């Protein structure tokens, strides 16, 4: 049978049923997923330095024969020291608390190793080097390193993916024409797949990464700009002419709006009155008052004879929104709730009231997208950034009507201003960059591991007062690194610092129902401490949570840490956040967070430090997640891709685009869905 990129991964040579299970943990289900599982870095053994030329503090690759191997005492535990020599000098390879490594070395064995050289114990040492046995001859290999999982190492993955590339490369249909890639000094896609998985040099590997980064950003921009054009051509709701009830709601609030809230309401009001369909991003830091702006917009829709929808990413957050809306708008609008766990009788009643127009505003999860949900006259949709969806889904929501409802996407993820338009190319952008008066910032303290007890003493004090705490870890389970894992930290806390406390655990390895159940228990106060991975970064609002502890915080980007910090300080009690670094260098990197509380300033710092790729993971556009943060994305490349997308679409619109450009644009649009073909079979 002819190989297809859609083949289940179990049928790829070297995989089989057992490894297919492991690959699924990495999100790999098909042959296409496998070859798109790109290495996040390389081990470059190609440039071997003579040991006599090695200097402390340098990152090097050395090669020599094993002279001796033995154990020495150390403050970090028992250390295995393996001396290798190339005749020009001696370098010691060192492993701490890994005695089983001794069996890997014998006198006379040729070893190549890479790592940072330090001067310790009167000699040159490389601690925990990347190494391989055997001679590198004149030039060593460049070895891709992949995100792996238990029972499947990076080396295993490299062998499997190399075989898959050989098998499936002839069946790859490139998306971007070679002429476009060549114009920007990039590789053709087929060549790039070879180079990223089996590079002959660091330079070739980097060019392959840039090629795939350009492909994804160009695809994203073509899709988003096409969607925006379709929205602008689609029939819009009749212009809103009445805003008195919305204004009265604002006047009834027990506080004054900030200048940023006033500006946001002005932007949205002009859109609603313009006669065109609103397609706007409302972006603001946690606590900037976005919910009031959303309420104003939904009240305006109701006042003008339309229904409104608010979709949240989790049931916990949807329920919290429902409670808040009932409190502030309960006597001004008829509010309903819908989620997957609503009882059948309640669901049927809600659907009947919605169809008849007896519900003005429906709040819920993606249950709102069910075909059973019929609206009398939907005119305004608010969606969380985790529920990015386009024209096709809005038509689905509007029950077959030709008019597109107004759309407001709300994001609490601060995105640098220089990237906001690129990330949300289909949306007009409103940024709320000021906070309401009287809101006290979360006190932030950065510690090294030896100071962990300070953080957990604060947690214990807070739960004794009836409050709650988050503990966030970088990993789900313990692996070969020394990074803290959520499962192990939970067990440790139950034995030591927080003995007797009610502690829950959530992470991405659990089912949605398991996560939802634990989150609900935490939100209701049945759990005092929630140990988690970054699944709690957005979508949970627990006012009683007053402490956040992040283990190995230097594993995360600064913007992610700021988002995590936003999970506390949501009530009236003083709150604190503790970032625990694994190294002194990591601590130094985190220190600015003790004084900087503005999310946009943090995001700009992160952009300078780690590049723009990470921010593309925060916006889900229905495109494949190819981990742009790890493809070496640069602002220059983003700008090039956006300009190229504009030029391509201009040519397509004018009818002068070459056939290969037209085909590329059609394929990308198809990934985003056929924007205005509602109900037509394809």
Query: Low-confidence spans: pLDDT under 50, at least 5 residues?
Result: 620-626, 674-682
**CATH class annotation of the domain at 240-432:** Alpha Beta
Annotation, overall tally of beta strands: 21
End-to-end Cα distance, whole Å, is: 27 Å
Query: Please, what is the average pLDDT?
Result: 85
Largest sheet: 7 strands, parallel
At CATH's second level, what is the architecture of the domain at 240-432?
Answer: 3-Layer(aba) Sandwich
Output the CATH homologous superfamily of the domain at 240-432.
P-loop containing nucleotide triphosphate hydrolases
Residue share in β-strands: 15-25%
What structural class do you assign from the helix and strand content? Answer: alpha/beta
Sum up the overall morphology in one term.
globular
Label this structure with key terms:
21 helices, single chain, six-stranded parallel β-sheet, disordered C terminus, seven-stranded parallel β-sheet, 21 strands, Rossmann fold, 18% strand, alpha/beta, OB fold (Dihydrolipoamide Acetyltransferase, E2P), 682 residues
Tell me what you see in this structure.
By secondary structure, the chain is of the alpha/beta class. Among the domains are: 47-140, OB fold (Dihydrolipoamide Acetyltransferase, E2P) (Beta Barrel), CATH 2.40.50; 240-432, 3-Layer(aba) Sandwich (Rossmann fold); 443-596, Rossmann fold, CATH 3.40.50.300. 37% of the residues lie in helices and 18% in strands. It is built from 21 helices and 21 strands. It has a 7-stranded parallel sheet, with helices on both faces. α12 links the parallel β13 and β14 (406-411). α6 crosses α21 (659-672) and α17 (558-565) packs antiparallel against α19. It is globular. The chain starts with 15 loop residues before the first helix and ends in a 10-residue tail after the last helix.
């Amino acid at each position: 049978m002819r190989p297809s990129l859609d083949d289940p991964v179990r049928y790829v040579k070297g995989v089989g049923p057992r490894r297919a299970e492991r690959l699924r943990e990495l999100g790999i289900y098909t042959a296409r997923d496998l070859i798109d599982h790109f290495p996040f870095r390389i081990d470059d053994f190609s440039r071997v330095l003579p040991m006599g030329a090695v200097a402390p503090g340098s990152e090097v690759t050395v090669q020599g024969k094993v002279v001796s191997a033995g154990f020495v005492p150390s403050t970090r535990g028992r250390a295995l020291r393996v001396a290798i020599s190339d005749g020009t000098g001696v370098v010691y390879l060192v492993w701490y608390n890994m005695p089983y490594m001794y069996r890997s070395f014998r006198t006379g064995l040729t070893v190549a190793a890479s790592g940072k050289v330090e001067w310790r114990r009167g000699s040159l040492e490389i601690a925990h080097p990347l190494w391989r046995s055997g001679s590198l001859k004149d030039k060593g290999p460049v070895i891709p390193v992949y995100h792996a999982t238990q029972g499947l190492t990076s080396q295993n993955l490299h062998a499997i993916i190399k075989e898959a590339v050989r098998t499936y490369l002839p069946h790859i249909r490139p998306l971007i024409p070679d002429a476009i890639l060549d114009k920007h000094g990039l590789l053709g896609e087929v060549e790039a797949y070879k180079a990223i998985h089996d590079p002959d040099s660091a330079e070739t590997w980097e060019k392959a990464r840039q090629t795939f980064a350009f492909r994804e950003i160009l695809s994203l921009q073509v899709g988003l700009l096409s969607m925006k054009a379709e929205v602008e051509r689609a029939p819009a709701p009749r212009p809103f002419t009445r805003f008195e009830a919305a204004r009265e709601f604002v006047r009834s609030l027990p506080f004054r709006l900030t200048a940023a809230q006033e500006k946001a309401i002005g932007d949205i009001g002009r859109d609603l009155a313009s006669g065109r369909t609103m397609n706007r991003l409302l972006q603001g830091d946690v606590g900037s008052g976005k919910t009031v702006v959303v309420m104003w917009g939904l009240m305006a829709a109701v006042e003008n004879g339309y229904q409104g929808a608010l979709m949240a990413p989790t049931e916990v957050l949807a329920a919290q929104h429902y409670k808040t809306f009932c409190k502030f708008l309960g006597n001004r609008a008829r509010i309903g709730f819908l989620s997957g766990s609503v009882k059948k009788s309640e669901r049927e009643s809600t659907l009947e009231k919605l169809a008849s127009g007896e519900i003005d505003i429906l709040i819920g999860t993606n249950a709102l997208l069910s075909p059973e949900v019929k609206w009398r006259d939907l005119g305004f949709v608010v969606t969380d950034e985790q529920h990015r969806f386009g024209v096709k889904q809005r038509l689905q929501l509007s029950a077959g009507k030709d008019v597109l409802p107004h759309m407001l996407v709300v994001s609490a993820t601060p995105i640098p201003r220089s990237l906001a338009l690129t990330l949300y190319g289909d949306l007009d952008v409103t940024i709320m960059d000021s906070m309401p008066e009287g809101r006290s910032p979360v006190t932030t303290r950065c510690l090294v591991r030896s100071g962990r007890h300070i953080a957990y003493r604060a947690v214990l004090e807070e739960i004794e007062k009836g409050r709650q705490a988050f503990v966030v870890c970088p990993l789900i389970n313990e692996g070969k690194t020394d990074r803290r894992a959520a499962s192990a930290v939970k067990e440790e806390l139950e034995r030591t610092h927080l003995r007797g406390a009610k502690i829950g655990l959530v992470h991405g390895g659990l089912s949605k129902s398991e996560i939802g159940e634990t989150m609900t228990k935490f939100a209701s106060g049945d759990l005092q401490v929630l140990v988690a991975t970054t699944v709690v970064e957005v979508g949970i609002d627990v006012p009683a949570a007053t402490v956040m502890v992040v283990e190995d915080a230097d594993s995360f980007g600064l913007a992610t840490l700021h988002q995590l910090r936003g999970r506390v300080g949501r009530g009236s009690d003083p709150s604190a956040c503790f970032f625990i670094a694994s190294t002194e260098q990591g601590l130094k990197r985190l220190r600015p967070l003790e004084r900087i509380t503005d999310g946009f300033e943090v995001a700009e710092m992160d952009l300078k430090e780690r590049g723009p790729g990470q921010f593309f993971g925060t916006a889900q556009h229905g495109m494949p997640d190819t981990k742009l943060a790890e493809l070496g994305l640069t602002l220059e490349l983003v700008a090039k891709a956006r300009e190229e997308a504009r030029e391509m679409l201009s040519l397509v619109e004018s009818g002068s685009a070459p056939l290969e450009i037209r085909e590329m644009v059609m394929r990308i649009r198809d990934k985003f869905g056929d924007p205005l073909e509602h109900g037509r079979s394809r």
